[in-house]
Design goal:
Blueprint: H1 2-10, H2 13-35, H3 43-54, H4 67-103, E1 115-118, H5 122-133, E2 140-144, E3 157-161, H6 167-172, E4 180-183, H7 191-208, E5 213-218, H8 224-230, E6 234-237, H9 238-250, H10 258-268, E7 269-275, H11 285-293, E8 298-304, E9 307-309, E10 323-329
Parallel strand pairs: 1-2, 1-4, 2-3, 4-5, 5-6
Antiparallel strand pairs: 7-10, 8-9, 8-10
Helix pairs in contact: 2-3, 2-4, 3-4
Length: 332
Amino acid sequence: MQSLIRLYFQMPLFLRLLTTVFFTMTLFGILIHIIEPNNFPTFFDGLWWAFVTGATVGYGDYVPLSTSGKLVAILLILSGGGLVTFYMATLSASTVKHETDLSEGKVPYKGSDHLVLIGWNERTRQLIDMLEEQNLQERIVLIDRTMNQFYQRLSSVHFVNGCATNEETLEQAKLSEARMAIITADPSMEEEQSDQTVIHQIVALKGHHPGLFIIAEVLTDRQKINAQRAGANTVIRSNDFMSSLFYQELYRNDPVKPFELLLQLLTERQFHEEKIESELVGKPILSAYEHFLKDCYQIIGIRKGDNLSFNLHPDIVLEKGDVLVVFSPLRK
């Protein structure tokens, strides 16, 4: 008996209330069936009357006629009615609290094989928008320590409020079962400090999930090697990328704007590597152009061993082991 009582009080409040409601209604259903067997011929009829009366619905299809039956009804209304009302109020309050906890990043993520984004900024916002536009059905967990509440109503994004170097935060984001993580630089910090923070986050993520594939953003070139040593699989130097775009824009001689052109390419297509098939070995690269155009692939470079070249000319002969760098349609 003591173990049952202990188990009862260990249950969540919602389950305790639900158990109490069922127990109370069952008790009154049995009592009214015993007291007035003619008006309540079965136990289920008594149970039905108890729930209808306790919930203050009162259909009137079953009514106690004796004095003792009416006294049972009064006790049911006094106890059961308040109990059901309290149960519904608790259910509503818990629903609102769960919604608030979700927006405040306090609810642990329950899924797996998801994408973890660290840092809420314009880059992660645009990445989420791109994933939504392409309808990729990507499950995303966003970790950020600067927001007290996530106001974006995105069904695919689960917000976790905390620091990515905190073990408790990583457990809440269920990083151990994540597929990939993207760490973005904090634009509010100085470049050196931001890169150091990114490196610390890489170390924390790799320590928690050694096999996790990590894409990290750094702002300075000298920290790229440290990010790679920390365990990042891909390191993106955003400052170098933006400087190249500025240079292209500064010295362009035609109306084509490099930034808009590159942005359109990267939102519609992706870089991809294709190994040379046996049927193309020994043939000129023009044959590969014709072969891959059938799948809307555009060849932009070729890798021969460790040498990668984007200077393509018709005299190139394809060899076994060659790899072509192509622009392929964005995966669906």
